[in-house]
Amino acid sequence: MAKSATKSETKKKEVTETVEAALITEEKPSKTTHTVSENETLSEIATKYRLSLNRLLKLNELSSPDVAVGTQLVVE
């Protein structure tokens, strides 16, 4: 009986390790970004990606619509 328990424990350990490996290597969905160009407004960017201005601000943790040229914004 001890052998059976050992085989069962070994199999359980193999399954656990496989699941853990899968979780570690699971890719998170990549976020779409937009790089702010000269003379571009957040309102225009929000419209381009069908977002509200408030949603765009929240996604990027911004408190103001003022952003520098070259800033990368998450646009989902």
UniProtKB/TrEMBL annotation:
Boundaries of every LysM domain copy: 32-75
InterPro entries referenced in this protein's UniProt entry, alphabetically: LysM, LysM_dom_sf
Pfam family name, one: LysM
PROSITE patterns per UniProt: LYSM
Descriptive protein name: LysM domain-containing protein
Protein species of origin: Enterococcus wangshanyuanii
Lineage: Bacteria, Bacillati, Bacillota, Bacilli, Lactobacillales
